[in-house]
Amino acid sequence: MKNIIIDTNVLIAGLQSKRGQSYRLLQLLYEKRFEISISVPLILEYEALLKKKLDRNIFSDSHIEAFIDYLCKIGRHIKIYYLWRPYLKDAFDDHVLELALASECDYIVTYNLKDFKRAEELGIKAITPGAFIEIILKEE
């Protein structure tokens, strides 16, 4: 089973609209078609940015916290012992790369491909949700 890291921008897009590849990715996650790896820094980022960027008339704190709890329940919890900072173009993404390396994930799924370009030097491929969905569907 594929193991991925989902970048926060993909979660936000998937929760904001029931159309598009990000929403489909979340459906496939719910269907247990792949695994996700998580870390404390990533979960804290998820929570902070979801609460900041999602429509608060639709998503209350309790809705967001329930979603985060679900991710914590199904995700592979990884502790980071080695830091690669600074490595990426956006220093705020370094913790995602560190998680990807520690978890030996297959992909980082993101819309910010340019921010993760250097991850390929370390054997980590960053791809869009649509590209990852194609990989999952081809494996069936």
From TrEMBL:
Identification of the protein by name = Putative toxin-antitoxin system toxin component, PIN family
Domain PIN, first and last residues per copy: 2-117
UniProt-listed SMART domains: PINc (SM00670)
The lineage's top-level taxon is Bacteria
Which SUPFAM superfamilies does the entry mention?
PIN domain-like (SSF88723)
Q: Which Pfam families match?
A: PIN_3 (PF13470)
InterPro entries per the record?
PIN-like_dom_sf, PIN_dom, PIN_toxin-like
